[in-house]
Design brief:
Elements (H helix, E strand, L loop, with lengths): L6 E18 L2 E17 L12 H5 L3 H13 L15 H7 L5 H14 L1 H17 L3 H13 L4 H21 L5 H8 L5 H11 L4 H23 L4 H10 L1 H13 L10 H9 L11
Helix pairs in contact: 3-13, 4-5, 4-10, 4-11, 5-6, 5-9, 5-10, 5-12, 7-9, 10-11, 10-12
C-alpha cells in the first residue's frame, strides 16, 4: 500500500520488436512479438510537504512562565482593565477645542510628538527605572525615582490622571493577582505611586521582562489617546486603526530609547500639549477629566 505522502503509478508501455522477415511466393510476411515494459513512477504531492524545517523555538512554544507573563500583560494593559483610563484625555480635549486637532492626520502628528518628545517617552523612562530598581531590590533608587515620577507632570489635572490610575492599578492587581513581594516594593516607594511607577513595580514583582512590559504600556497609552481623540474629533473606527498602525514604528522607537535611557535623559519639548493640559482645567464644556 502506498503511504499517504506518495502515489505510485504503474504504466504498461507496448514495445514492438521485429523478429524475422521471410519471402514466400512473392509475399512478404512479417512476424512480430509484443513485449511489455512496466514503468513505476512515484509522485510526492507538492502541497503535502515543505522544504522549510520548523524552527526549534516554534516547536517548543511558550514556557508556562512566558504564557503567564503574556496573559497578565494583555489583561493589565487592556482597555477593559478598570483603571479609569477612558475618563482622561491628557489635554487632547482642549487641543480639539482650540483647533489644533481637527482630523486623523493632525491627531496622529499630535500623538507622535507626545510619544517621542513628551509624556510618552518620560513615562517609559520612569517605568524602566522603577522595574530595574525593583528587580534589584534597590529601595533607595525606588524611592528616588517614584518621587521624581510623581513630580514630573505639568498640571494638576495630569497629576490627578496619573496618580488615580496608578492607585487603581495597584489595588486591582493586589486583589486579583496577589504577590508576596509587591507590598514591600510599594512601601519602599514611600508615597504617591503614579501610573508608570505602578506598572513597573507590578511587572517586576511578577518577574515579567522589562521589554515586553514597556511595549505593552506604550501601546495601551497610545490606544487610550486615540480613543479620546476619536470621540472628540470625531473619527470612525477605521481611521482610529489607521492612526494606531501609523504609530507602530513610533511606539517601537520610543520604547527602545526609554529602555536605554537614564533619568538624566528625562525632558519634554511638547509645550503646546503641556499648555493644553493646563487650559483644560478652565475649559467651559468637558467630556474628560484632563
Amino acid at each position: 500500500m502506498p503511504t499517504p505522502d506518495t502515489i505510485t503509478l504503474h504504466m504498461i508501455m507496448p514495445r514492438t520488436i521485429m523478429a524475422t522477415t521471410m519471402m514466400t511466393s512473392g509475399i512478404i510476411m512479417s512476424m512480430t512479438s509484443i513485449a511489455t515494459t512496466i514503468i513505476t513512477t512515484t509522485i510526492t504531492p507538492m502541497l503535502m510537504t515543505t522544504s522549510e524545517p520548523v524552527p526549534p523555538d516554534e516547536r517548543r512554544g511558550m514556557t508556562d512562565d512566558e504564557a503567564a507573563a503574556l496573559y497578565r500583560l494583555m489583561t493589565w494593559l487592556s482597555p477593559a482593565f478598570p483603571v479609569g483610563a477612558f475618563s482622561y484625555s491628557s489635554g487632547i480635549e482642549w487641543a480639539v477645542e482650540a483647533g489644533d486637532i481637527i482630523d486623523a492626520a493632525s491627531l496622529r502628528d499630535w500623538l507622535a510628538a507626545m510619544l517621542t518628545d513628551g509624556s510618552g517617552f518620560c513615562d517609559g523612562v520612569f517605568l524602566a527605572q522603577i522595574h530595574k530598581a525593583a528587580s534589584a531590590r534597590d529601595d533607595a533608587t525606588l524611592r528616588e525615582v517614584a518621587e521624581l515620577a510623581a513630580a514630573f507632570v505639568p498640571s494638576r489635572e495630569r497629576q490627578l490622571e496619573t496618580s488615580t490610575q496608578g492607585r487603581a492599578f495597584i489595588e486591582i492587581v493586589r486583589a486579583a493577582w496577589s504577590h508576596d513581594g509587591l507590598d514591600a516594593l510599594i512601601a519602599a516607594c514611600g508615597g504617591a505611586i503614579v501610573y508608570p511607577t505602578a506598572v513597573g513595580l507590578v511587572s517586576a514583582a511578577h518577574q515579567i521582562p522589562l521589554a515586553p512590559a514597556m511595549h505593552a504600556f506604550l501601546h495601551a497609552l497610545v490606544s487610550n489617546w486615540i480613543s479620546a481623540g476619536a470621540r472628540l474629533v470625531p473619527l470612525g473606527q477605521t481611521d482610529s486603526q489607521r492612526i494606531l498602525a501609523a504609530l507602530e514604528p513610533v511606539v517601537a522607537s520610543t520604547a527602545k530609547r526609554a529602555l536605554e535611557a537614564s533619568t538624566d535623559d528625562l525632558g519634554s519639548a511638547t509645550f503646546r500639549a503641556d499648555l493644553a493640559s493646563l487650559r483644560h482645567e478652565t475649559q467651559y464644556t468637558r467630556l474628560f477629566r484632563s
